Amino acid sequence: MTSPRNDAASERDIKIARLARLLDDRDRDALHLTSSASLAWLLGGARTAVPLGGPPVLSATVARDGALVVTTLANEVDRLANEEVPDAAWRVIPWHGNLAAAPAGALTEGEVAAELRHARAALLPAEVDRYLALGADTARALRRVLERARPSWTERELAAEMAREAYLIGAEPAVLLAAGSARGHVPHPLPTHAPLGGRAMAVVTMVRHGLHASATRWVEFDADGARADADAALREVEADAFRATRPGRAVADVLADIAAAYPRHGFADRAWEAHHQGGATGYAGRDPKASPALSDCVRSPQAFAWNPWVPGAKVEDTVLVSEGKLEVLTADPEWPATVVAGRPRPLPLARHAAPSD
């Protein structure tokens, strides 16, 4: 099931007003947007690229008085105007033209990267509605795949099924990772021809209306329970991450709390350094990854996707943080769960009787 974009024009007015304040603060007359994240955000979730994850085939210039001009290539304008951004003032350049070229005197994204992240961070009600729908669809899609998976499948077969489900829910896959039992120690397991075997991990980021929903799930075909203790401890690390993510806090301080959670729950003191821990999300998979030097603060309401990881175990869901509340967007009430810190958290899906071929 897909969720239609709401009134993108009125939503755009609010976002243009945020950009106008940015321009006032900088005492500049225009801002030239060129990234997929900023363009999808401003244009109501428009699909901005042709290759998946490729560079945008449009750019946009916002003036301090609120005027908006969208520039695109001659071979793209009809499709974009009819299907993605039907209510824009267009400037058309040759297919070989330079979309990144900013008008004279205009700010570029690189000059105001942090301010643009702040502008994108606090989601509007229509965006929250889209995110809720996308998160639920993403979680159900993962369940459908893993309910039919078999230990004889290769990682590539698992990834192919996740891609299929992404398109069936009207989304596009931005990340597809799969690890069979022999590759659970790999932080970013790009799919191979290795079989899933006794235990497998499926990781997906699905994009719809520009928003990114990330989640990780495990399926177990063997009943040995060898990773149960590590899984449980890592869920406690995640619970600490959720508690630490509160509006107004510096993201770097949240990350420091996550780092401290690893040894508190039985892992090595520097276990957090083995893999990035995730961070803010929304119109990018991580917007940006949390790091000790990051100056951003948690906004409200803002989406996050933390992904605590140790070799052989990982937890990840996309959540919405607001004042006094954290909601899991990629929750699935039909997935097996245990309660951690008062919140249902996913267990591995037990498929011990699954056929091997």
Structure in a nutshell:
This protein has 357 residues and is an alpha+beta fold.
Q: Secondary structure elements and their pairing?
A:
Elements: H1 8-26, E1 30-33, H2 36-42, E2 58-63, E3 68-73, H3 77-84, E4 90-93, E5 107-108, H4 113-121, H5 125-148, H6 155-168, E6 172-179, E7 199-208, E8 211-220, H7 228-244, H8 251-264, E9 278-280, E10 302-306, E11 309-310, E12 313-314, E13 319-322, E14 325-328, E15 337-340, E16 343-346, E17 349-350
Parallel strand pairs: 1-5, 3-4, 8-17
Antiparallel strand pairs: 1-2, 2-3, 6-7, 7-8, 9-10, 10-13, 11-12, 13-14, 15-16
Description:
- By secondary structure, the protein is α+β, with helices and mostly antiparallel strands.
- It folds into two domains: 8-121, Creatine Amidinohydrolase, Chain A, domain 1 (3-Layer(aba) Sandwich); 125-350, Creatine Amidinohydrolase, CATH 3.90.230.
- It is built from eight helices and 17 strands.
- The protein has helices at residues 8-26, 36-42, 77-84, 113-121, 125-148, 155-168, 228-244, 251-264, and strands spanning 30-33, 58-63, 68-73, 90-93, 107-108, 172-179, 199-208, 211-220, 278-280, 302-306, 309-310, 313-314, 319-322, 325-328, 337-340, 343-346, 349-350.
- Strands 4-3-2-1-5 form a five-stranded mixed β-sheet. Strands 6-7-8-17 form a four-stranded mixed β-sheet.
